[in-house]
Design brief:
Blueprint (H helix, E strand, L loop, with lengths): L7 H10 L6 E5 L12 E2 L9 E2 L3 E4 L5 E9 L13 E5 L11 E4 L4 E3 L2 E4 L8 E2 L10 E3 L7 H9 L4 E5 L3 E7 L3 E2 L10 E2 L2 H11 L3 E8 L3 H14 L2 E5 L10 H7 L3 E5 L3 E2 L5 E5 L2 E6 L3 H19 L8 E6 L3 E2 L5 E11 L2 E6 L16 E5 L5 E2 L4 E6 L2
Parallel strand pairs: 5-6, 13-16, 13-17, 14-15, 17-21, 19-24, 22-25
Antiparallel strand pairs: 1-12, 2-11, 3-10, 4-6, 4-7, 5-9, 8-9, 18-20, 20-21, 22-28, 23-27, 24-25, 24-26, 26-28
Helix pairs in contact: 1-6, 3-6, 4-5
Bound molecules: adenosine monophosphate and magnesium ion.
The site of magnesium ion (MG) has 6 residues, from loops.
Length: 396
Amino acid sequence: MASTLISVAEARERVLAAVSPLPVEEVPLDRALGRVLAEDVAASGDLPSFDSSAMDGFAVVAGGEAELRVVGESRAGTPFAGALRPGTAVRISTGAVIPRGADAVVPVERARERDGRVAVPAVAPGENVRRAGEDVRAGELLVRAGAPLGPPELAVLAAAGRATVRCGARPRVAVLVTGDELVAPGEPLGPGQIRDSNAVALAALAQAAGANVVRRERVRDRPADTRRALERGLDAADVVCVSGGVSVGPHDHVRPALAELGARELFWGVRLKPGKPVWFGAAGRTLVFGLPGNPVSAMVTFHLLARPALRALAGADPADRRTTARLDSSVRRNPARDQAIRCRLELRDDGWHVRPTKAQESHILSSMLDAQALALVPAGEGELAAGERVEIQLVG
Ligand code: AMP
Ligand code: MG
């Protein structure tokens, strides 16, 4: 492996080159949160679609102070049927249609109503009136293909009358963890055993990336068990994330098992700390990430490599969480490997800064807590000084 280590950037390119977006599906809006829109959606009509009142009050003809006869009511959902003539007013609720003939609304707080008449102060045309099309014009592009659907996008699509939208499918992910030493959280630990944290971490990362986790399995370090579990994963999923067993130890069976199952290796080994032994390949249309067993390395390589693949499969921009920030303190470079440093993000006068959460050795799982970004410090000699700009990947 050592002689063929590639950079993180090269690894990401190879991952994305292997991705073809999944088929598009028609999805009801209430199931679309976290999906990626696969069509440009334009407004079919003006929003709001009619002139309406911005206040509870009285619809009037704009003019000077006056005492008017109240001739009816326009409620939200039930417009006033007639037209308004000078000398009259119509009681109106917020969001109700402005009656024909009226062009202003006097808020109820500024009006005095008595015996079927209302005294109103002077009011200018258009006061407290929301005009049709003020929010969005008919034909205007509302949400673009490729947009991730969050609450604001869903609200706008609903307001525009869409009950369903075309979205990229959610990638199906199988999470396998290998290791004879692993015990499920909640079960007693024997000598030398450790709690399996990768199964829950990788499944959570996959879900947070918009995927459906369709299998979770803990696998013994035996060749046949490893092969069978991988075969089940390949059958069930678009992406298999398997952790551990991907190095060259006597109990590392993932690569030979994948080879037996016909998976093509696209890389093995990235010039990255933590995360060097990561493996990537494809078996038919299924992508396989052989992530390191070390929990920090597994999460870091998921963020840098598997997440972009999942987002691209769903039809999103895989680089959506990449930007740059300034280092808050100097960082010693590693001569051979790029480092992914777990950092907090802070906004200062001169933009975003990153500060390491705590010790960065790969066994410090708690360094992931409070990490809002991974700062990518390129391999090299010496150190990167405080204030230097680095590429970051937002996480969490
Ligand atoms: P491996 O890549 O299988 O050599 O594992 C590297 C390190 O990660 C070892 O210390 C393992 O015990 C640990 N490890 C592997 N899998 C997990 C897991 N699912 N949860 C927590 N630690 C793990
Ligand atoms: Mg292992």
